[in-house]
Amino acid sequence: MQATGLNLEKAYRKVMKAVIALFAVTFVLLGFPGLTSPASAGPGGTSVKGWVTRFDVVDVNKSVDWYQYALEMKLSLDALPYYGQVSYPEYPDTQIGLNSNPSPVSGKATATIVVNDIKTAVDSLISKGVDVDPICSAGPDVVLAFFCDPDGNNLAFRQDGITITPPLPYCGAPKCNNCAS
Questions:
Q1: 107 and 150 both lie in a single domain
Q2: Residue 6 sits in which domain range?
């Protein structure tokens, strides 16, 4: 009977060693849960902290005022009069940078602000004297409305998951273009 007890004890120790070895290998290969971070999403394995769309503008102070008034954004980085960044406080990692340049040429890109009610957003801009193109279709269940800042930089409102009947015309090119020819 004593021999059987010793055999069970040896078997138990072997099983425990195997379990410990399995856990050790798992932690080495997969990392300790909660102590490791997921793979970085940025270029070269870097960690992306946010996004800044930079526009060249003639007068940074005037542009900051326009973005604060028309789009109700807040100044988030103040290096006036040379540079300013505006954002929505709820989304501080997504910003628009306004860079002083006497001859702004920002290119053909469009900074797009995703909203939950494009008609209300468009009506708000129109009430503030901003010219906004009619809402158009950018594909299945996606609509846009283009507008410009005072320096001719392209902006748009976007709403996802919306179907408007009758179908809207397909969006063409943005309405403003301050590119050098």
A1: yes
A2: 1-36
| Residue 126 counted as domain residue | yes
Distance CA(53)–CA(42), nearest Å, equals 17
Any idea what the CATH number is for the domain that residue 93 is in? 3.10.180.10
In angstroms, the CA 33 to CA 11 distance is 30
Quick: pLDDT tens for 64-119: 999 999 999 999 888 888 889 999 999 988 899 998 888 877 666 788 899 999 99
Q: What separation in angstroms does the CA of 40 have from each of 28, 37, 129? A: 19, 8, 43
Both tokens assigned to 49: 């902290």
User: Is residue 168 one of the residues assigned to a domain?
Assistant: no
Please report how many Cα atoms fall inside a 13 Å half-sphere around the Cα of residue 10, on the Cβ side.
6
Cβ 154 vs Cβ 176: under 8 Å: yes
For the chain, how big is the Rg over CA atoms in Å?
Answer: 28
User: Domain total for the chain?
Assistant: 2
SS3 62: helix
Tokens read off for 101: 């340049």
Q: Six-digit token pair at 156?
A: 């748009």
